[in-house]
């Protein structure tokens, strides 16, 4: 079994390293530093850490002001509050002026677990993707999270970085570097494309193993950039296999599945099946139980792959 | 027997501990700080009927600090809204007892909360509806001291006095702690009394663990006309369990089996001492 690490734990270390390298990096948090793991940065660089209290809208505006004054703010809280509570502040105070704010949110998706529906953000990528000029990144694992933190600090402009609560398998090599806006081929195949993001990319790899055992060659394309979407890679794999399954720990509305469907319907119409939260709210439960109940397992991807292959145009 | 407020509060504490321990998850600290207040609200003050939870003329309650589900569910169960045994399913998959209050599914829950700062506005809407209906029903809501950092709290504070909502009572659970530590270190809210007064509220300060003070304060709220009342309740987070008291770490972590046994033993010991 591969090593398990939560993307938020990788964020903790990456942020401390970044703080050492770049004195312009500042961090804000809204009474969740021990959960988002900005606590590491807070302890190391207390003068560059701002505790804002339970006031996400204010935190977002303050981050905008810091960015307008040349700082590189990382504003962290749970994804639901980061993108939901402060949506319009992000849109008008950060997105429209294209300020250099990094909204680095943790506890995204249904694997938040026991806290339940109020805390499980399944619409956040959609909210952020709709803002012109916003970059949206959903890393697969801890290694890619660390790479993303480095990359977004170098990039000038607003970014939404989506991380999770629970430990997920490490699937990227240790020396992995992000190529801006590029998708990552994790596995070659000819029969069906599994296009996934975040923690679902590891699940897609698992599904590809199962399919291989049944003689089906699944190509696995990991998409860390929900926006800008690597349209070239998406079109290429769709044309190659003629059948696409998307997989994300997010609503099937407005996330990766929507982005891929939009792209393919214009450029290379292809049968597609979207794995994700099926337009419903989540609930309390253990992360593994929830993934099972809401059909986000390798088994579900395998079934979807077989289904969509039947619709292939010959 | 649950024939005194003291006995009810003790039972509420037991159920808070058992439910969070069974779930291996949940928020004991800010639940234990509310055992006395919830006891008085549900067993003395509010007009609610467990057999008729949707009665339109009932008093309303909103747990704006929604993470305090352990104390809310324990109180509702002891009041008879659902079986006490069901508390064992707290936070488990397929359970009605969601991590945060869910008005769609749980009898006795009047408003869905969990995102801090939103419940008070909902309560305000219920109070406005009560005025529109010329109804004597009252609306009670509990907010956290950390929660007071949310801007929406102050938007609601302004609106409630603007509309002279004397049918609205807010109880501020002033336990001095939030997740990251003491309120004054994370984001100072003082002078909190002056703030509420400046927003047009009648403020009553009290010891939130003293039954007679809680009853008197609620009486004071009833007697107040033309403005909403804030009960500034000084409380202890983790109250009643010595190793949990005043410790931020017990905000959102459940006791393990050993800690549960210790905590229940401490409650039992206090019960014996009181009876002697
Ligand atoms: C809008 C929002 N931001 C953050 C959180 C996460 N959170 C849950 S409880 C809590 C601290 C609450 O402190 P306080 O209001 O003092 O509650 P208490 O001490 O009574 O538990 C935080 C930050 C949340 N639930 N909602
Ligand atoms: Mg508090």
- Major beta-sheet overview of chain A: 7 strands, mixed
The CATH architecture name of the largest domain in chain A reads 3-Layer(aba) Sandwich
How many runs of DSSP E, i.e. beta strands of chain B?
7
Which superfamily, in CATH terms, is the homologous superfamily of the largest domain in chain A?
Answer: Thiamin diphosphate (ThDP)-binding fold, Pyr/PP domains
Oligomerization category of the chains in this entry:
heterodimer
What average pLDDT do the residues of chain A reach?
98
Radius of gyration of chain A: 19 Å
Q: Cα distance, first to last residue of chain B?
A: 16 Å
Which protein chains make the most extensive interface, counting residues with beta carbons within 8 Å of the other chain's beta carbons?
Answer: A-B, 31 and 31 residues
Helix/strand structural class of chain B = alpha/beta
Short characterization:
With 314 residues, chain A is of the alpha/beta class. Chain A has 13 helices and 14 strands.
Keywords summarizing the entry:
heterodimer; A: 314 residues; alpha/beta; Rossmann fold; seven-stranded mixed β-sheet; five-stranded mixed β-sheet; 41% helix; 19% strand; B: 276 residues; five-stranded parallel β-sheet; two-stranded antiparallel sheet; 10 helices; 42% helix; binds thiamine diphosphate; binds magnesium ion
